[in-house]
């Protein structure tokens, strides 16, 4: 396909949130698969703040494992009240009905485990639920984590649970 991946349900366009974004070509129903994230798997250990931001568009899928999303998914923007989530590690699904022309958004926190990571700017999602400062999964409020549970991979669920267990045990 000449390096261009065709998507039946989404397209890239200018975003009011940040740069370019991904938008719905047609109405998408809650629970419907939007697309699969494709790209090479990158093995990358995070050891300090510098290595924490090595792949700005990478999407975490496990311990030191990332997808470098090619073509369209390197433009997916963040929202603290997303309309899409990631089932498993690569399947983007609608969390609610998405209207044709609406920007498709995920919460970056559900694919990030590095406790040093922070979105390099204040969040501009404009949601009433905006957390302003976006950090890795460990720092999600419990009610937000629980709401996303079906769309958080088992690995990232374990990271969250372990962090809070250690925090509560004074470790």
UniProtKB/TrEMBL annotation:
Give yes or no: UniProt keyword Amino-acid biosynthesis. Answer: no
What is the protein's given name? SET domain-containing protein
What is the native source organism of this protein? Answer: Candidatus Falkowbacteria bacterium RIFCSPHIGHO2_02_FULL_42_9
Which keywords describe this protein according to UniProt? S-adenosyl-L-methionine, Transferase
Matching entries from Pfam families are given as: SET
Q: Which GO terms describe its molecular function?
A: transferase activity
Query: What PANTHER family has UniProt attached to this entry?
Result: HISTONE-LYSINE N-METHYLTRANSFERASE-RELATED (PTHR12350), SET DOMAIN-CONTAINING PROTEIN (PTHR12350:SF19)
- Family matches, as Gene3D superfamilies: SET domain
Which InterPro entries does the record associate with it?
Answer: Flavunoidine_N-MTase, Post-SET_dom, SET_dom, SET_dom_sf
- Top-level taxon of the source organism: Bacteria
Q: Where does the Post-SET domain lie?
A: 119-135
Location of the SET domain: 8-109
